[in-house]
Please model this.
Amino acid sequence: MTEEIAHNIYRIGVPLTGNPLKELNSYFIRGKDRDLLIDTGFRNQECFDVLTGELKKLGSDIARRNVLLTHMHADHSGMADLVAGEERKIYISEKDRSYMQNFMRGQMRRWQEDRYTKEGMPHELVLDVFNTNPSRQQAMKSLDSRFTALNDGDHIEVGEYRLEAIYTEGHTPGSMIFYIRDKQIMFTGDHVLFDITPNITIWPYVDDSLGSYLENLQRVRNFDVKLALPGHRKTGDYRGRIDTLSGHHAERLAEALAIVSADPGSCGYDIAGRMKWKIRADSWETFPKVQKWFALGECLSHLDHLIRTGEIKKKAENGIWRYYAV
Model:
């Protein structure tokens, strides 16, 4: 489950049993007087046993271990407070730290319930997802004083390495990737994945999360990267994959626009049901409930972008948003 991928940098595979992502890539960097662990896995016993067991094999002492989070999602942050030293730090972007606090206070749930219901998702299904989504059940419940905010351009030094924080809003509002410039190593988090496509969804206070994601793909495209270290699955050609991801979303936008043009007045839930998804389900009706939630969020990020670019518009009709081509 653990491999050394560069001098004093190790990849630990943390299982995400029952999740389509299958596994999280957690990265351990051994330093001189401090160590650094990048991302942790869900907050459950299996993830905890595997991660701490592999760290023990590496001779890692929790008392000298800082934790760095690429973003707020529970499969990356769920155990941060359990595997960081009591006197150490847990680094996360300023924006994602704020969003995590809002989630814990219930503010995000109220916004999501209102938005998804207005987009046509049955209210009882919205509530069911809230109660059954594993990522909600396996997340941290509170933040403590160890959580330290990072901003674009900040640096973290550990051993022979200097990591530069690069802000990449899109996958989450405060997603970050981390660059070791002299070694041309990039920890890409979920901003750039190679075997699967990062989920881009809607967020409160973000008008166009897909637009931000696409802009940030291009912003980081020309970094010289010999080794890309993603949050899930395998690595690959960094620039080539960015170009593929940009092309994928161009196709998705064209697909969403074609559906709206062919059936004006459709709600977001129905539009998502007509889009093509790589999932084992015979129809939209047989989609797993949680996957319907992710699919609708992805669909809405594309509809928001089409509104921003002036290609479609939406109208509230009897409490439901309806979409029309311009």
Summary: DSSP finds eleven helices and 14 strands in the chain.
